[in-house]
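Lab notes, practical 5.
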Amino acid sequence: MEIRQLSYFVTVAELGHFGRAAERLHIVQSAVSKQIASLERELGLTLFDRSHRQARLTPEGEAFLPHARRALREMDRAAEAAADLAAGTAGVLRLGSSPGLGKRLEDILTEFRARRPGALVRLTTTRSAPDKLAAVLAGDLDASFVSAPPEHPRLAVHHLWDDPLLLAVPAERASTADDLVSLASLPLARPARDENPEAFDLVTAACKAAGFMPRPGPTVVNAQDVLLGPVAAGHCWTLLPAHIARTGSDAVAFVPPRRPILLPTALVLLRAAPRSTAVDLLSATLKVARTPTRP
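Output from the prediction step:
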């Protein structure tokens, strides 16, 4: 069994078509078909139902797919381990991040590189907390910064700081917005719940504590687009961490709620046998997190 055979198999399974898989792999379709047929003979299994125009996995193919993916991931990790060895003591850090960490991330990486001169940092930035947690669990990331992460038996969650959230409201509502219930009639714009269920529920709980359920508003993909669009137009409100709450529009006001709403941020890594680069990152991060912020 060859790695390329597994790669071809997984690609066809994901795309459901031999021709499209060949295009993605930049080879001719006959080569894909030949390698998968060879794999099927070697395994003694029929992996695809070829009686339709699309390549559909057979029950045997469905069962084999997660094993093939796991084997490919292990090969990727072996290659990364070889890169670590080639880099000597410096090593490689695969780190998940989030938009908005800004100066904090810069300071953390500066401190990390002081501990690991020459280390290679591979940064992956995404808003999806579940995706980052899954990547740490799968070994695709060594560590990740996550807002309001849930507890997990295989993950060590190290709390770093709490960001106060500000209410971003139409300017004409600024004088009363600190009382959260004054916004009950206005839709709330926020990211989709599946992007970060815990953070979503934290905001919902704050609204409930103020005496109302928030009305669904636009889904936030880009905060500035929402601020300068529907918030400035008076159609909705949203929340942002205080350290990134800014806009060039006089039509938007940022108001601290009367009852503070705090969004926790943590560094998450594997509880058992984390890589040494992740341990050094944790030390660097805790040092920066405990350093008083300059005014």
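Observations recorded by the TA: The chain has a mean pLDDT of 90. The chain has three domains: 3-84, 89-160+264-289, 162-263.
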